[in-house]
Every structure is written in C-alpha cells, then in structure tokens.
C-alpha cells in the first residue's frame, strides 16, 4: 500500500494571481505535471499552509495567508485525499477561517488532520483506508497563530488547539494520540510535524529528538516533515522513517539564502519532493516501509507550474534534492522514481 506526501502548499499572492480566471480560479494547470505521481498512490496527503474560504481583501497578502475554496478543488483534482492543517498560518483568518477550511475540505472530498472547529470536534485523526490498511494521520505544529517567540501560546478563541502544539503536549501527548488511534482500529499512524528552521537544510536537534522518541516508541509508523521550505534528509529510526522536510510543493517564496553544501543558494526554496512510501505487512502482521521520491520544482516564470525534476531537465535542482534527501548515509534507502 503506497502513501504519497508532498511539501508545503502555499498560495502566495502571485500564485493566486496566476490561477485567476475572471471571477474564479483554476489551479489545475499548476498540478497537472505531478498529478500522475499523486494519483498513482493509494493515499495522497498534502500540507495545506493556508486557511480556505478567503475572498477579496482576505486573500493572501504579506505574511497572512488566505485562499479561495477553489484551492481545495485543485488539490482534490490533482489526486490528494487529505491534508495536514496544523501550521503557523492555521489561524491567519481567525477561528472562522479554521471552521471554513474544514467545511470546504469536506465538500471537496478532502480529509483534514489539524485543529478542529470547536471543542467537541478536536479535528484529528484523519482516517484513510486502502488495500486492507486503516491509516490514521495526526498533525502538529510549533505554533498555529504565529505568536513569535512563544511556542506554547494557545489561541484564546480555540483552547482545544493546544492539542496540536507539540511543545505544549510533548512527545508523550503525541504518543497518547497515536495509541488512541490504534485503539480505534488504525493499522498505521502517520504524524505530520510542522517544525525545524526555515530555509535551512540542516535538521535541528529538536527535530531529531522528537523523531527518535516517536519512532522508537512503536506507536508511530512514519513522520511527514514540513515548514523549513527546503528539502531535508530522510532517516530510518528503529525500522521506521522520517522525512524531516519535503520542501515547497507550491509557493512564490524567494526571501533568504539557503545554506547548502558549504555554498549559498537562493534557488532551493522552490525545490520540493513527493515522497512515495510503500508499506508492506507480512503474515504475522509486521509492517515494513520503503521510500521512492519525485523531485519537483516550481516554475515561477511560467504560471507557477509544479514540474517533475529529472537529472536531464534541471541538473542543479536534481542535485540539490537527491543529495540532501539521501544525506547522512541514506538509512532510508530512498531512491528517485523513474
């Protein structure tokens, strides 16, 4: 059974402008070239880094994110089955935006893992079923409302969102959620983590600590990492894998200079990857996993199309992504898709 996961989906103003079609939007052309990889997977999960339902002045501007409902339609048509919604932009449109996002995703046919609309509906796990597996997805972030310097700040209007802040609940809280998901029938537990340092391909000690403790617990089968906006390595811990960061799937990000291999690069923020994880269960129930990946890059000059990257089509981007995801000894054994 295969699960495809992607990097950050960020509808910056220029992305929205490129998708504008009269009074509406069409995001299909942006995803068209990577849609076959997404659709080929049994389950496909994105990182939705924006509230949905925004119109007019509420659309993305500056550091505030907001996307129309059509963005969810575009993700679904591309082949995604659901998304993580816990990130630093979750509350950019306040609590109404959290509620609208849930409603719009449901109407589009997308599952959601992240802060729920009210205390009675905590918002996770998202549940997927494929080829005899029941998969639970959980989602956590260092902040959900961009309170700078305070990773324990809980939005006053949504105290239940504390359950999506990993610095508030800690490893033990995530493990508790994972055990609960298993108790309710999940065969696999996937954890989305919005963590790390932006535009830094080096994995932080905090990322490694959480990954080591979660994967060694036996309660978490795979960690989906996002937020750094550049690709980071894959690591296997106690037989289970973590992709520390999948980079940017769709964005107009340009700021900053990325530290890469002793050099400085402004290009890596438009690199991303689709990781395709294959889970196999043997006759006694033991689950093993392997990874293949599709390097991608956002073509900002031609309509923000997400292009699959090959060694021939874009040697520099190919080298950046393949080298970093397989760095540190490539304990995942990750190989590019052909």
TrEMBL record:
Gene3D superfamilies: 3.60.21.10
A Pfam family this chain is assigned to: PGA_cap
Region annotated Disordered, chain positions: 315-338
Domain of life, source organism: Bacteria
Residue spans of biased composition, Polar residues class: 316-338
Domain Capsule synthesis protein CapA: 2-253
Family listed: Belongs to the CapA family.
Name of this chain's protein: Capsule synthesis protein CapA domain-containing protein
Organism: Flexivirga endophytica
